[in-house]
Specification:
Layout lengths: L1 H21 L17 H10 L15 H15 L3 H16 L19 H13 L24 H10 L21 H15 L2
């Protein structure tokens, strides 16, 4: 059966290549039908609560965005995810794939806030990856409770990492700028850092 499927795939691929080459088939006909973007925070939460039970976190840049697309929707059935959950996980992985420190860092110095407390921001945006206890929800996420850990760094360094994204040494995935929540203001980042120090700092 597998040999038949492989042969059929090769035949279809060759036919498509021929049609494209001769102009019989426009290139847009083979374009992926990409799903609507999901929610990064919900995707990270679904990954932590569902996917990571079987999978250790793998490097997001191990697969291209289009490869994550086919992988996530293949796993949707096996993991029992809804369509929305699958889109959220896909957005989480693809956003993490692109999460690298900015070439033009933006320092978090403003005082404006969204009105959320540091704790609310942590619970809504950060806890999915960092864990409610601050120890990290899956491998590679730093443990905030360690005396020599991430919170031993000065505020200006941590605020720059939160604002611009950062990949910890040895971690397979980078934290996206502002934890993937672009609605967070600079004041919000200051509030969440203050909460982290109060809740998990030694």
């Amino acid at each position: 059966m597998k040999t038949y499927q492989t042969a059929m795939f090769r035949t279809l691929a060759a036919a498509a290549a021929f049609a494209l080459g001769t102009g019989l088939l426009p290139a847009r006909a083979l374009a992926f039908d990409y799903p609507e973007p999901g929610d990064f925070v919900q995707g990270s939460r679904t990954w932590a609560q569902n996917c990571s039970r079987c999978h250790n976190i793998r490097s997001a840049n191990e697969l291209r965005d289009d490869q994550w697309l086919t992988t996530v929707f293949h796993m949707r059935v096996r993991a029992g995810l809804t369509g929305q959950e699958a889109r959220d996980v896909l957005t989480f992985l693809q956003t993490s794939n692109a999460a690298m420190p900015s070439d033009t860092p933006v320092h978090a110095t403003g005082a404006a806030t969204s009105g959320l407390s540091g704790r609310q921001i942590f619970e809504q945006t950060c806890a999915a990856c960092h864990g409610a206890n601050g120890k990290g929800a899956f491998p590679g996420v730093p443990d905030f409770t360690r005396k020599d850990g991430r919170l031993s760094k000065p505020d200006d360094v941590l605020l720059e990492h939160i604002a611009n994204g950062f990949q910890s040494p040895g971690s397979p995935m980078a934290m996206p700028p502002r934890g993937g929540n672009t609605n967070l203001t600079d004041g919000d980042l200051q509030n969440v850092l203050k909460y982290l120090r109060e809740a998990f700092g030694s």
